[in-house]
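Page header: ASSEMBLY MODEL / two components / 504 residues total.
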Amino acid sequence: MNKELKKVNKNALNPNVSVDCVIFGFDLEKLTVLLIDRCRNKRDKGIKLALPGNLIYTNEHLDQAAIRVLDELTGLKNIYLEQVGAFGNPDRISKDSDREWLKSIRAEPEASVITVAYFSLIKMPDYLPQASSFAKTAGWASVSEINELAFDHFEILQAAKEKLKQKIKIQPIGFNLLPEKFTLSQLHRLYESILEKPLDKRNFRRKIQKLEIITSLKEKQRGVPHKPSQLFEFKEVRYQELTQNGFDNFGF
Amino acid sequence: MNKELKKVNKNALNPNVSVDCVIFGFDLEKLTVLLIDRCRNKRDKGIKLALPGNLIYTNEHLDQAAIRVLDELTGLKNIYLEQVGAFGNPDRISKDSDREWLKSIRAEPEASVITVAYFSLIKMPDYLPQASSFAKTAGWASVSEINELAFDHFEILQAAKEKLKQKIKIQPIGFNLLPEKFTLSQLHRLYESILEKPLDKRNFRRKIQKLEIITSLKEKQRGVPHKPSQLFEFKEVRYQELTQNGFDNFGF
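Prediction written out in full:
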């Protein structure tokens, strides 16, 4: 155990405040999210899948706590996380299976806990989640196929999706989700999967071109079973500029 | 522990979670914010002004807690509040004057507290703040003239201002801040005071007209010491529509 960790362990847990992380990825077809399986043995009942999350320490910065908890449960390190918001419905821990599970891992399982949710967009292939702590396994699930999660995590996932939909209206997206070189179809599919609706192909391409955030490469796809498509990459300076300032079309 | 005691504990204060409210108004010249003076007697030292805020109850919904606390401290009832985010820097209660003050009002003054901030926009003349609880007085201050506040409230105010600046880019604003009938100069001044920069008058008017959110009345200002200006009102249906959907100029 290194010094850093010892220092953290000295501090007491804040029994009333937790953090949860919504980590979005994109498998070139569907929007995905990182979940942990908290199932301890095969006889455990109830909902097994949850967002990676845990209590914070009393002297820990909320943002730091989110980064630490994500690392501890999934092995993802130093991820840039943005706040979604705080969730404080007193009924958020009302399912029997959630209460039973908390009894097995927490010193004060009956304490009223509000949680602060964070979200991030990451390139999936860069990271192989390494489950540890109380996470038995960690892995990616297709967002559209998730119908329930532990605690109020389904509600939190919806709020994070909504935040992403808002973000896409005022900022470019894709740099953290797509491979360095990508096709227009892949970018198109990314927007469709975030917005959860089909987008007209020509219209989409015209709008993307107008933003001037991508540039075509003198390179095509290789090893694909169909006619290879043109590859593109993001213009980083322009992309960052629009990320900073937003599309800001009203122009103030 | 018997049932009775458990029940009592459920209604106890959550020592680790508070809410704070940033209530913006507009006095037709400047953006204002509602503050409380927590000064108990003239000999009290340190920063006296703070945002209205307090601990939540353990069995209380966060959003409900914010509405309750605002009411208790300022008499403002049933205000629609939107979340700004959670603030959890462990140093947020580090000023001596803040610690002293907490000792005088809290059962666990040393507890580590994260706070969830909310904000709202209201018409100033509709409400005369009625201070009570630990607020000695409550009143409106010009946002641009505030240099310090208790705890991390200055930081929270900045975050709420930033949220407002973002909001103005994707939604119309003014319905909750201006009188029912207003002049274009007043609307112009509102945008300038939120964005904290001068806006070209002609350009601003052209953009507002393009949004189709206001309609001119067959009425002019009365009793003003200058040439009376044309009065306008918001087109409520169109305004609500744009509030719901945003300007959405990227068009997805």
